[in-house]
């Protein structure tokens, strides 16, 4: 299943938050959006519907665990979930805490900026994420 | 649960493809992306993780059914799934068949255009969607 040419087969893809056999959770490094996590499926599969029913449930349970920790710890304006994979067709779910103050809200993070980056707010949010990472790891270990 | 100020409580939000008690599938009218479907949850809930486990499974089964029909009928380059809801915080999943020729590929549909719209390809794709709609309705009725 390993495809060396695939960025998510070759590397972790971010700061590792939790590693299970079938998936990992990473915190991405996306400028302006510190609370940007990804659930990366271990096997090189492009489309979510290619997973069997048990694996779909496992995958979405992980996505929901990350989402719930972000909601509880950060009280974001909205959670954004997405599995796109146009550039890296290896199943990964973006789980992003969005805030009314962020540079793009209410546009998607991939859309047009709506306002300048609020550097102080970004730094304050980033400072809370070690604790969020720990809470995600605890939730997924439970 | 009904919120009159919410666009997805007040109206169907697109061409109705399938109606179940807890969700509906609509085909959206997004210029340049004819194979753009949405699974709209009936109840006014903002976040996916607010659903209970049974409803999460039901919702993702509907998303996967739409995805699988799109894959089978249209052989897209990639499926894009997303639950954003920053503008309309009423749970809805975007299920979009993406093609290498489309105006934005490999960028998200919310990102920057990569090339002009290929009008002939868009028209040819749109002409197949009545059949796709029927296949989605059959898959969800099964």
Topology overview:
2 copies of one chain form a homodimer.
Chain A: H1 7-10, E1 15-19, E2 23-27, E3 36-41, H2 53-74, E4 78-83, E5 92-98, H3 119-126, H4 129-141
Antiparallel strand pairs in A: 1-2, 2-3, 3-5, 4-5
Number of domains of chain A: 1
Query: Looking at this structure, what is the CATH superfamily of chain A?
Result: HIT-like
| CATH class categorisation of chain A | Alpha Beta
Gyration radius of chain A (Cα, Å) is: 15 Å
Do you know the CATH architecture of chain A? 2-Layer Sandwich
Major pleated sheet of chain A: 5 strands, antiparallel
**Average of pLDDT of chain A:** 96
SSE string of chain A, helices as H and strands as E:
HEEEHEEHH
Strand order of the largest sheet of chain A: 1-2-3-5-4
Q: Any idea of the CATH topology of chain A? A: HIT family, subunit A
Number of strands of chain A: 5
Given the C-alpha coordinates, what overall shape of chain A results?
globular
Q: Identify low-pLDDT runs of chain A.
A: none
Task: Please give the oligomerization state of what you see.
Answer: homodimer
The SS-based structural class of chain A is alpha+beta
How would you portray this structure in words?
The structure is a homodimer of 142-residue chains. With 142 residues, chain A is an alpha+beta fold. Chain A has a single domain, classed as HIT-like (HIT family, subunit A, 2-Layer Sandwich), CATH 3.30.428.10. Chain A has a 5-stranded antiparallel beta sheet, covered by helices on one side. The two termini of chain A are 28 Å apart. The relative contact order of chain A is 0.19. The mean pLDDT of chain A is 96. At the A-B interface, helix 2 and strand 4 of A face helix 2 and strand 4 of B. Strand 4 of chain A pairs antiparallel with strand 4 of chain B.
């Amino acid at each position: 299943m390993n495809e060396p040419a695939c960025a998510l087969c070759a590397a972790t893809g971010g700061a590792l938050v939790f590693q299970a056999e079938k998936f990992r959770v990473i915190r991405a490094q996306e400028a302006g959006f510190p609370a940007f996590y990804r659930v990366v499926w271990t096997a090189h599969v492009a489309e979510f519907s290619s997973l069997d029913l048990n694996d779909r449930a496992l995958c979405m349970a992980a996505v929901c665990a990350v989402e719930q920790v972000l909601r509880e710890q950060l009280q974001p304006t909205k959670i954004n979930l997405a599995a796109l994979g146009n550039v890296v067709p290896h199943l990964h779910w973006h789980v992003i805490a969005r805030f009314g103050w962020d540079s793009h809200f209410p546009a998607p993070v991939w859309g047009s900026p709506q306002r300048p980056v609020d550097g102080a707010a970004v730094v304050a949010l980033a400072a809370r994420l070690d604790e969020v990472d720990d809470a995600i790891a605890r939730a997924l270990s439970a």
